[in-house]
Amino acid sequence: MNIDEMKNLMKDLLKRDDVKYAIGYEKGTYGARVRPLFAINPDDVDNFILNPLCVPNLATYLTKEEKLPLPRGQTAEKKKILIVAKGCDTRSIINLIEEKGIAREDVIIFGVACTGVIDLKKLKKYLKGIPKVDDVIEEGEKYIVKAGDKSLEIPKDEIIATKCLTCEYPNPLIYDHLVGEMVEDVKEEDYKSIEELENMSQEERWAFWEDQFSECIRCYACRNICPMCYCKTCKVDDLSPQWIRRSVNTSENTAYHLMRAFHLAGRCIGCGECERACPKGIPLTKLYKKLNKEVKRIFNYVAGTDEKEIPVLSFFKPEDSAIDEDIL
Ligand code: SF4
Ligand code: SF4
Ligand code: SF4
């Protein structure tokens, strides 16, 4: 289906009593930004857009909005959520279903066959003097950026998000309705981005990450945006016992990042939202990619690819080795 057909179907679905709202994208208020829109009434859906600027992974709201602590005695409203999800985003939905974070029947997924999204930081240098982008259209190997009476043609490979250059799952892996047409799906898992780190000695790697973590201001944007960070209380917020102090220094920052990295081992689906949100430009996805590489090598498990799988760290097989020498 195309975007108009998607909107019409959503409007019909929103009239049903068992549907709560639809999560999609709308234009932001400045620059090329796009923001999430929660459409509660059918008419709200008119504001939905779908173009290469629709970067955010909306799956994060399935738990951030729906799993809030409720006052005693209240139970969560059990209604379906409609959600727009690109190929990579559908992996987070699968992971949430695997982990029983959400129930399959509680979501109606509009899976988008995706040909890539734009990195706003890369686009910025082309937007000098342009306060607001109206639309972006993909035409073959270029993007047409429309802003008022201006129209810029930019080669796709100049501004496409880096993660999309090596995307293995451009097509939705789970969906109720397909938006767009399935795209060629041939890229292989690519670990080039972590090769340099893997070739370092342990001491060099430690120095690299210590340097990065010392820059962290512990704003927790990386955690808050992550679709896989949905514990009711994050250990970093616990006060009794206090696992990690509030002070921002390399030691406490390192504790936070190592704890988060291990919590995401075999769970991170590589959407890159943490790195996109980080105001300090810390290359977080390299850390999680390495852990996922090892999880794949040791357990032959790739997060968010099969809703019937059991999450890798929640079960044990007798043949699992207790200590893997190669990882040390
Ligand atoms: S990583 Fe793949 S599915 Fe995700 S935005 Fe890029 S091309 Fe689309
Ligand atoms: S988003 Fe960046 S600066 Fe903020 S806590 Fe995460 S790594 Fe640190
Ligand atoms: S850790 Fe980062 S890349 Fe992985 S799922 Fe969370 S936001 Fe996406």
What profile does the largest beta sheet have? Answer: 5 strands, mixed
Global mean pLDDT: 90
Helical content class: 25-40%
Q: List ligands, each type once.
A: iron/sulfur cluster
Which ranges are low-confidence, i.e. pLDDT below 50, for 5 or more consecutive residues? none
What does this structure look like?
It is a single chain. The protein folds into 2 domains: 3-127 and 161-179, no CATH class; 192-327, no CATH class. It is an alpha/beta fold and 328 residues long. The chain is globular, with a radius of gyration of 21 Å. Helix 3 (87-98) links the parallel strand 3 (80-86) and strand 4 (107-112). The strands form 2 sheets. Strands 2-1-3-4-8 form a 5-stranded mixed β-sheet. It has helices at 3-14, 60-64, 87-98, 120-124, 156-159, 162-165, 192-198, 202-215, 221-225, 250-264, 273-277, 284-299; strands at 19-27, 34-39, 80-86, 107-112, 135-139, 142-147, 150-155, 177-179. Helix 8 crosses helix 10. It is built from 12 helices and 8 strands. 32% of the residues lie in helices and 15% in strands. Bound molecules: iron/sulfur cluster (3 copies). Residues 216-222, 277-280, 282, 284 line the site of one iron/sulfur cluster.
